[in-house]
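hiii so um. not sure if this is the right channel but i have a protein structure encoded as tokens and i wanna go backwards to a sequence. like what aa goes where. can anyone help
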């Protein structure tokens, strides 16, 4: 608060000066709304300075200030913090969603894959849930993934120690970014899946497979339970890609 309060006042003052209005009694939200109505770009010089001083040049981590700065740089489509922010994946894994969402808001998600993959492949990346967050985030985007990243996800999917939720995220990723061979592997795994949820996910994951082959598999699987049947209906529906989260 001692840092954020004066920063917020300066930020409001900067917006007010850009709009030619009185900053007195103007909140941050009101200032940003006035800026949006005027169709004026968010000023970021102060935000950049605050990020540099408080995060690039300081070892302390203030969560509220971090969120304040990232959200406003993000609104301005300013990628000033994009390279630096990925470093917090290791030191502050609890901020993973904030970090990744900020990055993809200001840059194409594939441009950060090398840095992210280097961290996930290291001994420091010990939390399966963080791996899950990364795969879930990357699966939101249809822009192609690097072959190195795809190979990494294949290893996660095949690893017996991967928790079920992580394997589910890996399956979803491969359904979008994997090769035809990956789709064949996913289809071949169906018979070994005892869990009905996993079977439904598997059927959805082969939505890109050649239609005739895919439908032949679906013809055999449609009597395997309510969820597999619903999965088949989903893939054959008009809203398939939207429901799958593919943009």
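sure thing!! here u go:
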């Amino acid at each position: 608060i001692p840092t954020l309060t004066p920063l917020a006042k300066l930020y409001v003052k900067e917006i007010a000066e850009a709009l030619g209005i009185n900053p007195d009694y103007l909140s941050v939200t009101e200032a940003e709304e006035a800026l949006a109505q005027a169709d004026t770009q968010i000023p970021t010089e102060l935000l950049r300075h605050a990020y540099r001083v408080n995060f690039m040049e300081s070892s302390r981590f203030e969560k509220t200030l971090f969120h304040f700065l990232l959200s406003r740089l993000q609104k301005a489509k300013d990628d000033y913090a994009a390279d630096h922010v990925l470093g917090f994946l290791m030191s502050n894994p609890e901020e993973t969603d904030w970090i990744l969402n900020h990055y993809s808001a200001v840059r194409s998600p594939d441009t950060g894959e090398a840095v992210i993959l280097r961290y996930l492949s290291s001994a420091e990346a010990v939390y399966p849930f963080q791996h899950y967050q990364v795969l879930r985030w990357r699966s939101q985007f249809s822009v192609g993934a690097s072959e190195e990243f795809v190979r990494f996800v294949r290893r996660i999917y095949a690893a017996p120690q991967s928790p079920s939720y992580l394997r589910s995220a890996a399956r979803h990723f491969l359904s979008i970014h994997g090769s035809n061979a990956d789709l064949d592997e996913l289809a071949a795994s169906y018979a070994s899946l005892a869990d009905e949820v996993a079977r439904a996910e598997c059927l959805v994951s082969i939505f890109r497979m050649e239609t005739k082959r895919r439908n032949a598999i679906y013809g055999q699987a449609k009597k395997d339970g309510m969820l597999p049947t619903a999965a088949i209906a989903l893939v054959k529906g008009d809203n398939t890609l939207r429901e799958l989260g593919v943009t």
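oh and The chain has a mean pLDDT of 89.
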